[in-house]
Amino acid sequence: MDFQTSEDDNLLDGDASIGTHYTMTNGGSVNSSTHLLDLLDEPIPGVGTYDDFHTIDWVREKCKDRERHRRINSKKKESAWEMTKSLYDAWSGWLVVTLTGLASGALAGLIDIAADWMTDLKEGICLSALWFNHEQCCWGSNETTFEERDKCPQWKTWAELIIGQAEGPGSYIMNYIMYIFWALSFAFLAVSLVKVFAPYACGSGIPEIKTILSGFIIRGYLGKWTLMIKTITLVLAVASGLSLGKEGPLVHVACCCGNIFSYLFPKYSTNEAKKREVLSAASAAGVSVAFGAPIGGVLFSLEEVSYYFPLKTLWRSFFAALVAAFVLRSINPFGNSRLVLFYVEYHTPWYLFELLPFILLGVFGGLWGAFFIRANIAWCRRRKSTKFGKYPVLEVIIVAAITAVIAFPNPYTRLNTSELIKELFTDCGPLESSSLCDYRNDMNASKIVDDIPDRPAGTGVYSAIWQLCLALIFKIIMTVFTFGIKVPSGLFIPSMAIGAIAGRIVGIAVEQLAYYHHDWFIFKEWCEVGADCITPGLYAMVGAAACLGGVTRMTVSLVVIVFELTGGLEYIVPLMAAVMTKFTHTTLAADVMRPRRSDPPLAVLTQDNMTVEDIENLINETSYNGFPVIMSKESQRLVGFALRRDLTIAIESARKKQEGIVGSSRVCFAQHTPSLPAESPRPLKLRSILDMSPFTVTDHTPMEIVVDIFRKLGLRQCLVTHNGIVLGIITKKNILEHLEQLKQHVEPLAPPWHYNKKRYPPSYGPDGKPRPRLNNVQLKPIAEEREETEEEVHLLNSTTL
């Protein structure tokens, strides 16, 4: 589970001694109580909302939703209108996921059609219908041949249109130049639109969506401008021929649709936790239209991106994925009645001895994932220190130019990546004319069937293997440099292409080995002469799953996604073998909490003896997100927790709406107002914004429990107490630092005080009165105390407290 924080999540505060002391008397208590601004009766606009780049309070959002649900149920029997509102609230969840699924499927179909047309535009144009791509242009032609099914008079290359030559060096050079021109044009337009209109539209979007689903606020990341620019630039980026895919960004597009539609329903627009249920369903719909895998989309949302995934979200995610898949199937963007271009079906079973090459492909996928992650991180760090980081448009143009120049001579790199995967997945049949299927046929064969027996490879196969090896090296290098540039870019398809190339090469090698050495003991039982033993396309599929799993670290959802691509249950075992082949806390809460040594003491608010000016000064002098509220500086027993934003909004609202609220007004967080002199200004009661039940742990709570609590409850912060006395605070950032220390095998912070026989000095002195304390450290030693206590006080003063 990922934690994302900002600097504002540091809830450490300044000096707790800030505040003005007032003499409390019994006089004027009745009159002063009538002057209170009781915010319990008058809700304050803006209280309970969140600033940009802040985390939400899951516990508070869930409490708000329960209160809303309770209020609706209590009123639904009052009138028919209230009953209608109750039914609308109950069905709003299904309505919003239905709209999300419809929009996701429609946009995915539009993106697929536009990307295919613009990809073929780099090579030529259809004169009979400009909106047709190459394949569609030749569908109605009667002049195509079986060997050259992609050539028809209606489709004209740029060389034919410009110089009137279809063959020869001049034609090749002109097509080469036009290919580079269109690639650079598409890439430049994509990066320019992203930079000017929607900077959040770059990248795949999945890491940020995982961050948002974990409770982080990123304003505008799922907005309408991001959706519009992402949809347009995704088509341009794919058509430019860069080593990227559209499947990852489709999840971002679907989540943008879910976020926009959630604002139509108050149930989701006013509650950040409920809105994330819609986003979980939207991410499932995005994977559904990206891979044609509704079940895999639900599992992807559950396994990879979602932080909070209740049972009702599971059903709604599945429904959204089905609706999106149905809409995409109705559009039929590829003309094959399938949801994806590279849908395949194999008719030959796999054999036990093939588990060994499948596992080797899994090892290759793990090595590729480790290499890509390290190399891409190193390049991203390098980018920050070079001109590429300052000029993202120049970087995209350079990468696109290098990609186009190197990709055009090789037919496998010139292809659209999805078409390349389709060709590598496809099994060689009697109607296949690809060079990968250029085998030497047996002239003595009596009949032609679908399951063609293994044959010796011809010159076309050997030539294709060399081209695939070059394409593999090219894809590996360019994917490292492409992922991270300022255009929409997915990692799924490039990783699958790399694995499919490696898998097809291995599959052909095993096939030829079984053909020429069928008498070996590992082939003897299954690979007889004339039998269809090895399916190279299956190896390409397994390699694609292995490389995708190596990069994304997906397991169960990836197996189901690839299973839905192939439509066969019998390949679950080899997929699992490939995907799964990849490469204790000892501290306590007191060791991780803040403040530590050399830190300023923990700033706190007292419940009834601070003024408005004191609180405003504390807010202005610090940049922290909230403050613990204690009974008094003498006892320091916890009362609650007040957020910085709520304090600011409440004070500003009180100054505008109420007369008599000045800087010297007493701020009261208690239920009952203390006695004040009659001439004192009107007090301000802020108990309504106080979290009366902040999550707390004791100083001796093991950190593995604290980490588990943060993960399962989605906490923003947790207070550390000892016998009800506030000692410090633990935030998400502290948790991250602690986990990073464990990952790097660094010794945890040494706890210098909690192993002592006696942790704290007594709360009361020999005279029975409370001792003055600052952060539980005795200010002045008491002469009557034992020597042991004096040593403890000295030890406390020198520790992290």
* Sequence stretches where pLDDT stays below 50 over 5 or more residues: 1-41, 443-450, 746-764, 766-801
Give the helix proportion (percent range): 40-55%
**What is the CATH third-level topology name of the domain at 352-442 and 450-581?**
Clc chloride channel
Strand order of the biggest β-sheet: 1-9-8-5
- Class from secondary-structure proportions: mainly alpha
The average pLDDT is: 78
What is the CA–CA distance across the termini? 30 Å
* CATH class descriptor name of the domain at 352-442 and 450-581: Mainly Alpha
Number of strand elements: 14
Distinct helical segment count: 30
Query: How would you name the CATH homologous superfamily of the domain at 352-442 and 450-581?
Result: Clc chloride channel
CATH architecture of the domain at 352-442 and 450-581: Orthogonal Bundle
What is the radius of gyration? 33 Å
Shape: elongated
Describe this structure in words.
There is one protein chain. Helix content is 52%, strand content 6%. It has 801 residues and is mostly helical. Among the domains are: 102 residues, no CATH class; 223 residues, Clc chloride channel; 158 residues, CBS-domain (Roll). The strands form five sheets. It has a four-stranded mixed sheet. It has a three-stranded mixed sheet with strand order 4-6-7. Strands 10-11-12 form a three-stranded mixed sheet. Helix 3 packs antiparallel against helix 9, helix 3 packs parallel to helix 11 and helix 6 packs antiparallel against helix 16. The radius of gyration is 33 Å and the shape is elongated. The N terminus and C terminus are likely disordered.
